[in-house]
Amino acid sequence: MTNRLEADTTKITEALAPGKSRRNRPGRIRERNRDCILAAAEREFALHGFRGTTIQGIAERAELPKSNVLYYFSNKKRIYCALFDSIMERWNAMLSEIEPEDDPALTLARFIHAKVEMSRTHPLASRLFAMEVIQGAPIVKDHLRTTMREWVRDRSGVIQQWIDDGRMAAVDPVQLILLIWSSTQHYADFQAQILLIENKAEYTPEDFDHAADFLTQVILRGCGLEVPSAEAIAEAAEIAEVQAG
Amino acid sequence: MTNRLEADTTKITEALAPGKSRRNRPGRIRERNRDCILAAAEREFALHGFRGTTIQGIAERAELPKSNVLYYFSNKKRIYCALFDSIMERWNAMLSEIEPEDDPALTLARFIHAKVEMSRTHPLASRLFAMEVIQGAPIVKDHLRTTMREWVRDRSGVIQQWIDDGRMAAVDPVQLILLIWSSTQHYADFQAQILLIENKAEYTPEDFDHAADFLTQVILRGCGLEVPSAEAIAEAAEIAEVQAG
DNA sequence: CACTTTCCTGACCATTTGGACAAGTTTTTA
DNA sequence: TAAAAACTTGTCCAAATGGTCAGGAAAGTG
Question: Which parts of this chain does the entry mark as a DNA-binding region (chains A, B) (predicted)?
Fold first, then answer.
């Protein structure tokens, strides 16, 4: 009954205490329930937005009493913020550095594929982010103004260098990043529309591959670049993963 | 005190009764208030989604008592639906027909420009639509399954014909339409993100022109098409407008 | 002008909301 | 194993919600 206000700080026990079995490690209950609540909240918030989501709704989806949810997160906003913390962290992890020496075509192709993959594996996070931004980004405003702005500045600098070196057509680098961002995001955010138009009940894994290939083709060609082979892209992605891991 | 339930049908008096002055034409109060409520509702729904929007909030923005709002629209859902009726109508009006004989480059360029223009003139409608689709399109589901599917089928048929005739590169026509849709929509829906990244308080009119030109360049080139001059695009748009009017 | 229709709105209501809290149970620790 | 810490949850509450309704004001009509 003690730590009510600080109850929603992340990762109390970072590493397992030595000698404790995994099953009985302290904090495991907290971890399990937090994860469960966050998963439920992600669905609810992505479905109804911040104001439209009720704690009761989250609780029901998590199959916990409302009071229990409020034990772990002192109020609705904290749940919402906790979600964005983990979403932003994940994005930062994915969006790797690029260097002027890198190959433009391979780098862009890899970025497109990674972003589509993100839409496939984390569609709810994508929709949640979309909702937040549509509503004026009240929570992630700071993050966009700082981290993401910097991220875009760095990347567009490298792209501009590629252009100056004559390695690709002269297109506005920021616009190019926005184009890749929006067209890839779209598969997660507008899933309902796409499925209805294509008369399908669900995406198949190939849908994402096709989408990524299509986007790579059109955008790279649009930038005056040769489209690398699928193998080359996959290979580049693997190298990047090894470097990151 | 009579027509409470049918109060929210559109356009009671289609034409002005002859001999009536415009100021005193019956139904003018209804029309004015309905418009006012719908404008307020558009902002609120685009900002908070369906569940997150309150009638009280709409009423306050429209500077009317809540009861008055409920006099014109018997419940929240009716307001929401009325909005989508007008949005869909506007879109249908904009999205003109295309023929296999048309020039691919000019037609696509015009479509991109028209869509960006839509993001500029009706950003709230765009965001409202985005919210609706993210939430699974509960209201516009039918429209997407019928009208919009047909629309995409027709267009992609023509594009496929262009490809078969060797007039453009072989790209998936449906994916192409989705790409144009998403990249143009993005400027309205993710306005907050773009402005924060570009460190601006507001869009300038040129921002939209730049965006449209950029997208035209990259997408058309990506489809193996020559990019028409800005004048040619503007001219084609005017001709289309005359034909539509 | 009288009378009908349309418009307006304050008062009201059942339900839901976010959240506080106390009294309990379970788990961890010394 | 007993005390401490962590966890659980039913109960409660004030405020907000969607929506009703009756009764009055204004506008339109013959």
Answer: 54-73
Chosen domain end from B52, B82, B112: B82
CATH for A35:
1.10.10.60
Is residue B216 domain-shared with residue B108, that is, in the same domain? yes
Q: Are residues A75 and A131 in the same domain?
A: no
Q: 0.85 exceeded by the pTM?
A: yes
- pLDDT on residue B19: 37
The two three-digit tokens of residue A124, written as one number:
């709810």
Kindly state whether residues A131 and A192 are assigned to the same domain.
yes
Residues B20, B46 share a domain: yes
Three-class SS state of A239: helix
Structure tokens at A179: 């184009």
Same domain? For B132 and B20 the reply is no
DSSP code per residue over A191-212: HHHHHHHHT-SS--HHHHHHHH
Same domain, A139 and A225: yes
Spell out which residues of chain B touch residue A192, defining contact as CB-CB under 8 Å.
133-134, 136-137, 141, 144
* CA closest to B150 among chain A residues: A197
Nearest nt by C1' to A53 Cα: C17
Which residues in chain A have their CB less than 8 angstroms from residue B169's CB? Answer: 221
Residues 20-59 of B with CB under 7 A from strand C: 26-27, 29-30, 33
Residue that is last in its domain, among B15, B49, B82: B82
Q: Write the pLDDT tens digit of every residue in B16-51.
A: 333 344 456 667 889 999 999 999 999 999 999 999
Chain B residue closest to A142 (CA)?
B196
Tokens of B183: 């990249």
Q: What is the pLDDT of residues A118-168, one digit of tens each?
A: 999 999 999 999 999 999 999 999 999 999 999 999 999 999 999 999 999
The reply to whether B88 falls in a domain is no
Query: What is the tens place of the pLDDT at every residue in B53-103?
Result: 999 999 999 999 999 999 999 999 999 999 999 999 988 887 778 999 999
CB of A68 nearer than 7 A to strand C? no
Chain A residues with CB under 8 Å of B136 CB are 47, 192
C-alpha A77/C-alpha A81 separation (Å) is 6
Tokens of B33: 């208030």
Q: Which long-range contacts (CB under 8 A, 24 or more apart) does B156-162 make?
A: B158/B98, B158/B99, B158/B100, B158/B102, B159/B104, B161/B100, B162/B100, B162/B104
Estimate in Å the CA B12 to C1' C1 gap, whole number: 28
A50: domain range?
Answer: 5-82
